[in-house]
Amino acid sequence: MTGPSTLGQCSWPDLDGKAITLVVPLGSVEQHGPHLPLDTDTRIATAVADVVCGRLGDSDILRAPDLNYGASGEHEGFAGTISIGHDALRGMLIEYGRSACRWARRIVFVNGHGGNTRTLIDAVTRLRFEGRDAAWFPCAFPGADAHAGFTETSVLLHVSPSTVDTSRAVAGNGEPVGALLGAMREGGVGAVSPNGVLGDPTAASADEGRRLVAEVTDRLGAALVSWEVDDQGRLG
């Protein structure tokens, strides 16, 4: 596997006249319990983008620098969280897409933070209405627990093990997210989980993380080739 081509390494003569597909990892800076780093979502999006761009090995596919901040208001009760909110995120994504699509044929935001989803739908729908070939793709894992639990901890143990403090991994609230939404709307994640965890990370493993990443990278790789975008701007 070759390494992914990255936008920061290119100059404009390298790009001029090419039908570029720009792959943009989007994450957040927010608490992920006592055992995971604040940039967990960005690390996941970056790992997925890197694997897929490297696998495709196409000079017309570029991995952009990470967009590290997102809409994480539900986590602001915990130190370290920095949320730019939905309005600022929407404006940034729209202007980013407008600028990139002056020279790129297509752009896809690879999203690692579920809280960004409604803003992505809004922003990408706007870009597409304006005639730009934009899309977004979720780093979603079927059957996952909600936050900083088994799923995300397993993925980080695979893609960034040095950032995981397994000695501090403890279970949080394991109820279904649907049952917690009312309380979280009022008081954020802290209202339902004092340690910020929604799930149980204690049985997480790098092997499970490897399997999860393989599944999502396979989906993104196929989606980039087929480029089928639904009415909410979602790729694949």
List keywords for this structure.
single chain, 236 residues, alpha/beta, 4 strands
Secondary-structure map:
Layout: H1 12-15, E1 21-26, H2 40-56, E2 61-63, H3 85-100, E3 106-111, H4 117-129, E4 134-138, H5 150-159, H6 177-187, H7 206-226
Parallel strand pairs: 1-2, 1-3, 3-4
Helix pairs in contact: 2-5, 2-7, 3-4, 5-7
Structure commentary:
The chain starts with 11 loop residues before the first helix and ends in a 10-residue tail after the last helix. The chain is α/β, with parallel strands linked by helices and about 240 residues long. The longest helix is centred in the last third of the chain and has 21 residues, at about 205-225. The chain has a four-stranded parallel sheet, with helices on both faces. It has helices at about 10-15, 40-55, 85-100, 115-130, 150-160, 175-185, 205-225, and strands at about 20-25, 60-65, 105-110, 135-140. Helix 2 packs across helix 7. The radius of gyration is 18 Å and the shape is globular. The mean pLDDT is about 95. The protein has seven helices and four strands, in the order H-E-H-E-H-E-H-E-H-H-H. Strand 1 (about 20-25), helix 2 and strand 2 form a beta-alpha-beta unit.
